[in-house]
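#struct-queue
[09:14] JT: dropping the first one here, sequence first, then the structure tokens:
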Amino acid sequence: MCGCTHSTQDQALHLEGDPSLSAAPTSTLAPRKMPKSISVSKQLASVKALRKGSDLEKAIATIALIFRNSSDPDGKLGKATAKNLLQTQFRNFTEGQETKPKYKDLLSELDEHTENKLDFEDFMILLLSITVTSELLQNIWSVKIMK
């Protein structure tokens, strides 16, 4: 989708080995050896950098963990797995979009993806694209904030 040579996941894993970056959060991903049966909330709690993290940081870390838990050993998602994640984990953003041209275009891009697998970066682009075209986003923006 984006054509980048390194996924965000690969970059995060690369940075973990650099001792000069030890003061910065090394990764929002679960350690490689963490069993997938451990809940995402427990995996999030195990990432020290997120203990005082913002809601946005925790949201992105949650996406990264769900991706990681669903990916193959190479850190990529097959198309069927990606579609399943969209239907199960992103249902409120995808519901009712199935007949809309923009949504159909996004899914057809997924079907035409030449590698047959998505890395984390491509998956994030897909999620953001679906978010931007969803009716749920329009509903969220129309919420009046009480002061």
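[09:21] JT: and here's the second one, same format:
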Amino acid sequence: MAQVIVIHGYTASPEENWYPWLQRLAAERHFSVNILRLDPSIHPRLSVWESQIEQQVGRLDENSIVIAHSLGTIAAMHYLSKHLIHQRIQQLVLIAGFNGRLGRLNEVNPFIDAARIDFELLKRQIEHRVVIYSQGDEHVPPKCSIQQAESLHAELIAAKHQGHFIDSEGCTELPEVWRVIQPYLISENQASAKE
């Protein structure tokens, strides 16, 4: 059965944005989604997030799906660059992602600068890579997400929602995420039926 892991963004929590919607949708269909709880500090440290991810993520396997949003995309790629050396996963979905400094919000620059991302490894060890972005994102310019997709040879999806995919901008559902992960999910009921 697929293990779905969600890594939230800067100063966020599992109770915000479209994360509760995804969790409800998955529960209705008998899928398990693990939305991690990471330090919401305005001065986040990558080492702290990395340790928290380590504590909350089970063993990755070829059915694992990792979804990350905004600053969480940096944390996810850094984490996976260390943990996929001898392991493949099914899917990586990055929402409002970027690869380096954005030229704003200097509080996150040390976090971004500390990240070590091996794009070649990620391309090799992740079966399906997706980047979802919005033309109306004022926090992460679309060109940054497009560049991220190019770095990963990822499928690029322009979302209908015009913003940074946060609830304060009206984004409490993100159907594009569900559409891309659904083909890779096997529910507990389906798994039992196959045995």
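[09:30] RK: nice, looked through the second one.
[09:31] RK: The radius of gyration is 16 Å.
[09:31] JT: good to know. The chain has a mean pLDDT of 93.
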